[in-house]
Design goal:
The protein has 196 residues and is α/β, with parallel strands linked by helices. The chain has two domains: 15-60, no CATH class; 69-196, Thiolase/Chalcone synthase (Peroxisomal Thiolase, Chain A, domain 1). Helices cover 33% and strands 10% of the residues. It has seven helices and five strands, in the order αββααβαααβαβ. A three-stranded parallel sheet has the order 4-3-5. The protein has a two-stranded antiparallel sheet with strand order 1-2. Helix 3 (76-92) packs across helix 6 (145-154). The chain is globular and about 55 Å long.
């Protein structure tokens, strides 16, 4: 393939839910001011681990982007994806409507999906029995729900894809990314990545 056959990609909007901040502006401010997003682990008891630090997202409220009922049915990684995508669409000044919805796709990469949901439901299964497990366990934990829920919440009806490639997920979904991403795709495709 020659460079003449490659399609150009234009980034028109950004969204960010990160250890440095939960908006593009907060994230950028953290980067240019050399702020460190690494700190003590607070999301679980790490006292028995050799490493007790991580880059956790702090101060994120999913209800700023979705209803409380919807938030309860989504794992945190999917909440991050929906929130960042809504930010990106808004930042771009892009409106998804009946005329362009089928030309707008979602491409999201993730490291693993809803591992916390799996852990929580395993504990419920062992202590309270299978009848107490959530019927939402599978839809909450599978990795492609980040892309699916993003499409639902933004109105995108074009191609929908989720790359599950651990730390390479961002590279897989964002330009220049892998060669397949440079082939023609819907003009409104929104790549992104989410890690918990």
């Amino acid at each position: 393939m020659t460079t003449m056959n490659l399609k150009r990609v234009v980034v028109t909007g950004l969204g960010a839910i990160t250890p440095l901040g939960n908006t593009k502006a907060e994230y950028w401010d953290g980067l240019i001011n050399g702020r460190n997003g690494i700190g003590p682990i607070t999301r679980f008891d790490a006292s028995k681990h050799d490493c007790r630090i991580a880059g956790e997202v702090k101060g994120f409220d999913p209800c700023d982007y979705i209803s409380r009922k919807e938030a309860k049915r989504m794992d945190r990684f999917a909440q991050f994806a929906v929130a960042a995508s809504q930010q990106a669409v808004s930042d771009a000044g892009f409106v998804i409507n009946d005329l362009n919805a089928e030309q707008v796709g979602v491409i999201i990469g993730t490291g693993i999906g809803g591992l916390k949901v799996l852990e929580d439901q395993q504990e419920i299964y062992l202590t309270r029995g299978p009848d107490r497990c959530s019927p939402f366990m599978i839809p909450m934990m599978i990795a492609n729900m980040a892309a699916g829920l993003t499409a639902i919440h933004t109105g995108a009806k074009g191609p929908n894809s989720c790359s599950v490639t651990a730390c390479a997920a961002g590279r897989e979904t964002n330009p220049p990314g892998v060669p397949q991403r440079r082939h023609p795709r819907p003009p409104g495709s929104r790549p992104g990545s989410t890690l918990k």
